[in-house]
Structures are given as structure tokens and as C-alpha cells.
Amino acid sequence: MSEEISERVSLFRSQLQNRRFDDRTLRILESVLVSKDVKSLLEIRSMLRVLMRSESVSVLREIAEKSVDQKLSVVEFFVNAFALVRDVESCLALKYEALVLRDLKHVNHQWLRVSYEEWLTFAEDSLDNGFHSIAAKGFENALLSSQPTNIDNFFAEAEVIERIKKLRDMARALAASHSVQAQAAEYLNRKANQQTSKRELHSSDSSHLASSMFRSGIKKRNMQQLRKSRSLPKNINGS
Fold first, then answer.
1. Residue 51, φ and ψ in degrees, nearest 5
2. What is the DSSP string of 165-208?
3. 98, 75 contact by CB (below 8 A)
4. Phi-psi region of 19 (alpha: psi -120 to 50; beta: other; left: phi over 0)
5. What is the CA 121 to chain-centroid distance, rounded?
6. Could you write out the DSSP letters of every residue in 47-72?
């Protein structure tokens, strides 16, 4: 990492620590991500992801008692920041938090109401990026938010609702399939460990049995030699 980039990273970290969640901080972040060296760029992104994940957790705890506007403003900043460093998982996670927050507060603030189009866009993004469980929740929320507004749009919106249901069911199936695969992999791994333990135990038992037989054979042979040696003087005297 060049000295110039290191200075920009330090400046970006300082902005986060001073809780300056504005466009200037985002521009500083953009200036960090200008490396033409692919390897360096990947390393920088990885480092920034770790930094921002840590800072975002601390910040979200700090603003727990703040107003909805303040919370949404901070969450939007981190959504944009994570998008810049291509941390899709964190980006979608914070988007979901923002949508849920708005959904909870929209009773008293109608402007916060989440439309089914917003839920649908979020759900499709989650599905495209492989986050099937969260996508299913997004599609379900889209269904809850989608209500025909008038008779003229009823059939058109009914088609949209049917499409959302199909996407929701597909997301659920994919999530279940992934869960089954994970459970199967865990089961096979557990069985493999059990088989290994059995082989080791069998090997140990066989070794112990062979060792016992060997010692018993030696003991028997020694006894035979002892009896033979004791009988020799008698045979000599008898002659």
C-alpha cells in the first residue's frame, strides 16, 4: 500500500471515529479505492470491510436512543459505504434494518411507510446475491405491503402479487435446500469422525490384544525353559 493511500485510509478512519457520516467522508473512501493494482485493491477493500464492520456495530449501539431520522441517516451512510467496498452482505443487512425500522415507525410517520416496490427490490437483490432466507422475508413483507389501491389496478396488481408469491416460495425452497445440504454435510462429517474414532479404537484394541498375546507367549516360553532347567540335575543324578 502506497504512503498516499495509507494517509487516506487514516483520514477515513478518523472521520468514522469522529462520527462524521457525510458526503465528504464517502468521497474520502472513494479516493482510497483508486488503486489500479488488483491485488492491492482487494487487500484495501478487505481491510476497509473489517474497519467499517467494527465501527458500524459501535455506532449503531450509540444511536439506539436517537431519533428515527438520525438512525436512518447513519444507516444510509453505511449502506453507501459498504456498497463502495463491495461488502454486499453488510450492505443488505443494513438495508433490511432500515426498512424494518421504517416499517415499525410509519404508524406515526406516514412518510416512513415502506412500499411493496422497496421490499420487492430489496428481496430480489438478496435473492440474486444468495441470501435466500432474508430474501424470503423481504418477499413476505412485500406481500404484506401490496394492497390493490383501486378496482382499475386490481388485476394488474394481482399479477404482481402472484409473481411475488412465486419468488417467495422459490426463496424459501432455496433456503430449505441450503439448510438440508448443510445438515447433510454436518452429518457426513460427524459419521466420518466416528468411523475414524472406531478405526483408531480398533487399532488400539488390536495392538493391545497382540501385545498381550506376545507377552503371554514369552511368559509361557520362560516357564517352559524354567521347568526344563530344573529337571536337568535330576536326570544327571539318575544316570
1. -60, -50
2. HHHHHHHHHHHHHHHHHHHHHHHHHHHHHHHHHHHHHHHHHHHH
3. yes
4. left
5. 22
6. HHHHHHHHHHHHHHHHTTTS-HHHHH
Can you read off the three cell numbers belonging to residue 184?
Answer: 447433510
Q: How far apart are CA 132 and CA 156, in angstroms?
A: 27
Question: Per residue in 47-83, pLDDT tens?
Answer: 999 999 999 999 999 998 888 889 999 999 999 999 9
Residues in the chain with pLDDT values less than 70 = 1, 35-36, 107, 147-156, 179-192, 194-239
Residue percentage of the chain with pLDDT more than 70: 68
> Which pTM was predicted?
0.67
Nearest to 15 by CA among 64, 77, 88, 73: 77
**28 and 12 Cβ atoms separated by less than 8 Å:** yes
Q: How far apart are CA 75 and CA 63, in angstroms?
A: 10
Identify the residue whose cell numbers are 514369552.
218
Q: Are 85 and 33 in contact (CB under 8 A)?
A: yes
Q: Are 32 and 8 a contacting pair, CB within 8 Å?
A: yes
Q: Which three cell numbers stand for residue 83?
A: 456498497
C-alpha cell at 228: 526344563
Amino acid at site 101:
L
